[in-house]
Amino acid sequence: MPVLEPRQLLWPTAAAGLDAQARLRHLAAGALRTSRPLAIWREPGAAHPRLLVARSLEATYTGLPPALDGQAPAGFAFFPFRDSDHNPALFLPADVQFDVARPDAVVVSPAARDLVPALTAWLALPPLPELAWHHGGQPAPPAATEAEYTQLVRTGVAAIKAKEVVKVVSSRAARLPLPPGFDPLVAFAELSARYERAFVSLVSVPGVGTWLGASPEVLAEVTADGQFHTMALAATQPLVPGRLPQDAIWRQKEIEEQALVARYIVSCFKQLRLREYQETGPRTVVAGQLLHLRTDFEVDLKNVPFPSSLGTDMLRLLHPTSAVGGMPKAAALAFLQRYEGYDRAYYSGFLGPVNVGAPGVSRLFVNLRCLQVRTTEAILYAGTGLTVDSDPTREWQETEYKMQTVAAVLAI
Ligand SMILES: C=C(O[C@@H]1C=C(C(=O)O)C=C[C@H]1O)C(=O)O
């Protein structure tokens, strides 16, 4: 059997007046109209976004976290914090791809070649004035009041004191009305402009909903030059205007909280009997209006005995990391299940491209600083790592700061 190659569709002359952004919008409109899942993302430091459309919702259901090796299928992973029927683990196959950096062509995978006639016709049609974004089937989660959240923090601190957990990351949801005429693609562009170093994403899946975010946290990356990368990102303080990030002073609580996350990553390497890794940090990094402590871990895949499976194995061990769940993992997750009082859905799950653009290159991020777009409101999510010294009011304030990262695009 001949190996089928992807098809390149060129934009027709009818689309000559559409610039690259308008083309991306037109393709997104087509995917939304035909009930197909789509992902749009801008990688940290990249000048342009990409779009990927899956041929059908059914084609996105997946049982396992994606394989991070060059032979694995190309697509966009969208994983919940906890896998469930309400929040399925998804992998959007790269059936239709568009790169704003190469605006002349749309690439269609062999699995989606049946779509070519309809897609060719769509490219020649005039753009729609409005896009109908997909909505989730689940009710909106309850929004915790300050009293409720500070009580959750107290319960978490008590669990730490009782040695049920060493660290737990409590979180909450908040609901804000969407401003009139809110346009997720415009908000995506605004987040991309505001947060150059973030992974900015807009994912819309029928029945699952529309999620927008600007994440500062790499979960697992395999780069073109054969490096595996992950990070321990934790501890938070606001960036004070006029002060340099490198002058930030961290309290003992924060240093310990971040060290736990770093130690967790090292324990994952140990489970895989990997000794050769480079550790850099912790150092202070900027994420929007916030500062965090970050340690980077790098593995040269040329120097490990199992280069093709390291990324895959690490991803499966890492998620959910102690930066979003806690330590020990099982006890922290059980605590959250019992006390958190709402469904995190895709918040603190992970997302990102696998083998898109180039085979063997994957970039998965923790889904933080995100919101869910609903018909008339946005659901915002944020959490804070608790330790024995946590102060409930400060933890509430920290979730407010974190929500500000994406709430900035809701300002009327
Ligand atoms: C849980 C979140 O962030 C995580 C928790 C942090 C903390 O506890 O200080 C900092 C960065 C992230 O790893 C969030 O943004 O919701």
Verbal overview:
Pfam families: Chorismate_bind. It comes from Hymenobacter ginkgonis. This is Isochorismate synthase. This protein has 412 residues and is α+β, with helices and mostly antiparallel strands. The protein folds into two domains: 7-123; 146-410, Anthranilate synthase (4-Layer Sandwich). It has eight helices and 19 strands. It has helices spanning 20-33, 116-123, 146-161, 184-194, 252-271, 307-318, 329-339, 392-407; strands spanning 7-10, 38-42, 50-53, 75-79, 90-93, 96-99, 105-108, 167-177, 199-205, 209-215, 218-222, 227-238, 278-287, 290-300, 326-327, 350-354, 362-366, 370-373, 377-386. The protein has an eleven-stranded antiparallel sheet with strand order 1-7-6-3-2-9-10-18-19-8-15, sandwiched between helices. α3 crosses α8 (392-407). It is globular and about 65 Å long. It starts with 6 loop residues before the first strand and ends in a 5-residue tail after the last helix. 47% of the residues are buried. Ligand ISJ is lined by residues 169, 171, 217, 233-236, 292, 323-324, 368-369, 382-385, 402.
Task: Name the features.
412 residues, 11-stranded antiparallel beta sheet, 8-stranded antiparallel beta sheet, binds the ligand C=C(O[C@@H]1C=C(C(=O)O)C=C[C@H]1O)C(=O)O, Anthranilate synthase, alpha+beta, globular, 2 domains, 26% helix
In short:
With 412 residues, the protein is α+β, with helices and mostly antiparallel strands.
